[in-house]
Design brief:
globular; 3 strands; three-stranded mixed sheet; mainly beta
Length: 77
């Protein structure tokens, strides 16, 4: 399985004690790229549990669709 994920960040994010939530406890960094609270995890990754191996997915506005391939304008990856 593969996911098309677009990021707007151009550098690292510093995480400090202000990022801890008294109710939630420790913080989790999003690794799937789908969180609406990115770069922090909001649990959205649970929607990817039934992705099929060898399939490329695009998630947009909460909807998932399969795409045949990702084509890059400059031919690179």
């Amino acid at each position: 399985m593969a996911r098309e994920v677009r990021h707007d960040a151009t550098g690292p994010l510093k995480v400090d004690e202000d990022d801890f939530d008294d109710e939630k406890g420790n913080i989790a960094i999003c690794m799937c790229g789908l969180s609406s609270d990115y770069p922090f995890c909001d649990g959205t990754h649970r929607t990817t549990r039934d992705e099929k191996s060898g399939t490329v997915y695009r998630y947009e506005d909460g909807d998932r669709r399969e795409i045949e391939e990702i084509v890059y304008k400059d031919g690179g990856e």
